[in-house]
Amino acid sequence: MGTSVFYFVAALSVIFSLMVIFSKNPVHSVLYLIVTFFTLTVHYILLNAQFLAVVNFIVYMGAIMVLFLFVLMLLNLNKENEPLKSNLVKVVGVIAGCCLVVTIIGSLKATAISDPVLLKNPNLGLVKNLGKELFGPYMLPFELSSVLLLTAMVGAVLLTKKEKV
Amino acid sequence: MENITQGLQGVPLNHYIWLSAIIFTIGVIGVLTRRNAIVIFMSVELMLNAVNLLLTAFSVHNNDPSGQVFVFFIMALAAAEVAVGLSIIVMVYRNTQSIDINVLNRLKW
């Protein structure tokens, strides 16, 4: 047992996120993305960030993915208007991504931090602790994010209105 | 719950950084290679989630709840971004009958 659960879930999340970008059908991409988010929820549970795990489960897997699926069904994409991608762009994109990951990991090697992640305070990710933090020092950003959500809602309604306003 | 998660701790911090870097890079590759606007949006979501996971790992590592608060803010931001972005995609589809981003290349001039 021990840390092997982390490596198993990590391998699952990498595999499913690869399948998100390489599957041909966009509906399959959305479904694989839901599975990827579920593995990330498992990661949050392993880190004992229970509040984030529940929020990730409800907001991402519930709300955002339903929005994606809904738009995908609404647009009614057929096979013939599914855009084809050239092989050159694919190869160049994969090479550029590999360069990015090599750069990040190489720069990480130079810093050489490798302490194990240990939970010092078991109450760290619980709602009580995070709520105190959220309504204490982060009161203003929290209220501003509500304004942001209201703005996004008004903007989305305005953008999708058919007639001119 | 505590006993279960306590037994599963002890993964090196480097491995969390590697996992996040790999998932982030997969998102970058998706943005670079796909031409379907919705799949590009999903790749952006992948990148946001990689950053979220890394922030949570650092938060646990440094015993600081601020990181998890920031993850919460990023989730609120992602919800707003997805709502506006998908409505833009619906509008583009209504005008051009396609969600191929190469149709939008007349934004270049």
TrEMBL record, chain A:
Localization terms from the record: Cell membrane
Leading EC class: translocase
Chief location bin: membrane
EC number(s) from the headed UniProt entry: 7.1.1.-
Gene3D superfamilies associated with the record: NADH-ubiquinone/plastoquinone oxidoreductase chain 6, subunit NuoJ (1.20.120.1200)
Keyword terms: Cell membrane, Membrane, NAD, Quinone, Transmembrane, Transmembrane helix
Descriptive protein name: NADH-quinone oxidoreductase subunit J
Organism, as annotated: Pedobacter gandavensis
TrEMBL record, chain B:
UniProt-recorded Gene Ontology molecular function terms: oxidoreductase activity
Transmembrane as UniProt keyword: yes
Reactions accelerated catalytically: a quinone + NADH + 5 H(+)(in) = a quinol + NAD(+) + 4 H(+)(out)
EC id: 7.1.1.-
Subcellular location: Cell membrane; Membrane
Keyword Transmembrane: yes
Cross-referenced Pfam families: Oxidored_q2
Signal peptide positions (record): none
Coiled-coil annotated spans: none
Topology term for the membrane: Multi-pass membrane protein
Record keywords, A-Z: Cell membrane, Membrane, NAD, Oxidoreductase, Quinone, Translocase, Transmembrane, Transmembrane helix, Transport
TM ranges: 15-32, 39-58, 70-93
Entry similarity comment: Belongs to the complex I subunit 4L family.
Biological function: NDH-1 shuttles electrons from NADH, via FMN and iron-sulfur (Fe-S) centers, to quinones in the respiratory chain. The immediate electron acceptor for the enzyme in this species is believed to be a menaquinone. Couples the redox reaction to proton translocation (for every two electrons transferred, four hydrogen ions are translocated across the cytoplasmic membrane), and thus conserves the redox energy in a proton gradient.
Subunit (UniProt): NDH-1 is composed of 14 different subunits. Subunits NuoA, H, J, K, L, M, N constitute the membrane sector of the complex.
NCBIfam families reported in the protein's UniProt record: PRK05715.1-2 (NF004320), PRK05715.1-3 (NF004321), PRK05715.1-5 (NF004323)
Protein name (Swiss-Prot/TrEMBL): NADH-quinone oxidoreductase subunit K
Gene name in the database record: nuoK
